[in-house]
Structures are given as C-alpha cells and as structure tokens.
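anyone seen this seq b4? input:
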Amino acid sequence: MFVYVGSYGSGITVARQDPATGTLETIQTAEAPAASYLAWHPDGRHLYAVQETQDGAVTGFVAGEDGRLTLVNREPTGGAQPCDLAVHPAGRHLLVANYGSGSVAVHRLGPDGHLGPLTDLVQHRGSGPRADRQAGPHAHQVRVTPDGEHVFAVDLGVDSVFLYRLDLDTGKLALDGAGQTEPGAGPRHLVFAGSGVVHVACELNSTVASFSYAGGELARLGTIPATVEPPGTANLPSEIALSPDGRFVYLANRGQDVVTVFAVDGVELRPLADVACGGHWPRHLAIVGQYLYVANQRSHQVTCFRLDVDTGTPRPAGVALEVESPACVLGGMA
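predicted toks r here
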C-alpha cells in the first residue's frame, strides 16, 4: 500500500506502508507548492493537489505502478488559498474550495485526467459574528454526497453548509439549499455517516454539529462538544473521518492535541475517548488499512495508530514519517 502526504513545506511525499508496523518509507517527494489537500480520481491513478497560495491553483499527477507521481498539468482555481478539493464520482469534474476568497470552483477533467479550465466559479456572500475569522466567506471543504446528487460546500465564514447540484454537461453549479450551524461555530469539515446523516466539525466553537440530509434538505439534529474532556486550551477541530465499518467517528483536535473517538449510535454520536495524537497540531487524519495516521503540522511528523476493530480505540504505534508541516494524508494503490 502507498500513502501520500501533502504538506506546506515539502510538496507531496510518496511512501510505502509496512503492513506489519504501519511505518512509512519515503520513495519520492513530488514538487507541489503548499499541497495542503489531496484527492484521487475514481480511476485510482490520477491524483490532484491544491496549491494553497494567494494565487491558488490545482495540480494533477498520474501515479505509476510503483506509486511514483508524474506531473500532468496545473490550472488556476480563480480564487485565493484553495484548501480542499474533490472529484465527482462520474470522473468528469473537479471541485475546489477557495478558502481565502470564499468561492467554489469547478474544473472539467479530460478522459486522461487532464485538468481543464474553469467551468464555474460560485462566490459565497456574508459574514459571521467572529470578526477575526468571519469577516467574509471562507469555503473550507467540498464533498459529493454518496448518491452523487449533491455537492456540499462547507463555509467557515458564514456558518453554512451549502447544497449544490452539478450539471454534468455544462459543469455549472446550482444552489439547492443550505444548512446553518450555530452562529460563530465556524464549520470546517464534514463526514457522511450513513442513514442520511452528516456530522460537521466546527472549528471556532469546538463542537460537532449533526444534520439529517434528505431530498436536498439539511436539518440540524444537535450539537455536542468536540472532545470528551473540556479542553485546557483553545481547541480547533480539524478533520473528521468515519471508520470503514461505519461504527466510529474520529475527530482531530488542534490545541488539545487529541484524536477524539465517537461511537455512531443511530443518528447521534456518543463520545468514547480522547487519545493523545503523539504530536502537535493535528491538522488531518486518515484511515489506511488497519492504521490511523495523523498529520501533526507543527511537530512535523505523521504519527501512526493501530485501530482496535472491536472498540474503535486507536493504539499508538509511533512516528510513521517525518515531514515538514504535513497537512493531509491519503491512502493509495495497494
């Protein structure tokens, strides 16, 4: 299995996973400025990375049988500081969240994975009560629903999760609804948890907000703290992920520097444990095989945990990789 680590400091690190220990051996460092988020094409061969800079761009690569990346092309996103991206399951469009400018971009993809120019650029409007972080819109994530019917765009600046429909012929987005978090919550990332439920990590008020999703409608079900124990310092949740069997949710918490484990109990989350992340400022986490990897941005390391399939508890397995300012971990080809 190959693992790909996007970073602010050292491009994209391609590593080979040791299935017995979870450690990662670097086999390539691909040049990609400020590659803070990565996403695969459904073909499993083409990888895309944001370039989180003021003049934002996305970069496409093709992965060889040996896991190594070869540059395909790069295109501007039409906005500032793109921080997240996703490929529509039909494989014909790439969606990008421009954090700095608060917009969502759409690129057409060629049959060979080649990035085309923009087909749409939707600008969010508004602000939130936190003047320091919510003076304007800040699109933080784009995700396509499991049925492919909607594109969710999470906006930290305006406390909203927008629902769009993507026209696969024109590449245009049409607004189809929105859900609101608590004012000042600062929604960042979400995860689909089955049964029409979406759990949203809220960065600014250290909570997880849960919504029901049906027929293009989002209805807030409730909100719970992001950690089991009250944080002893300012805490900013980052990435949220679902276990492969759908029984557990994992949330990275920066500040408290823990991974919080929740049991999925119907439409609700039940807090189980806070597990030290093994580093500082866990910006992202991902499950690859039987291991949970955490990208600790400020301690410049990816830590590894073996997952207990019965209890969901991550068991520390040490530092898997040293990387300058890691921001994203993504599993790849076996």
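DSSP finds no helices and 28 strands in the chain. The chain has a mean pLDDT of 97. kinda curious what u guys think
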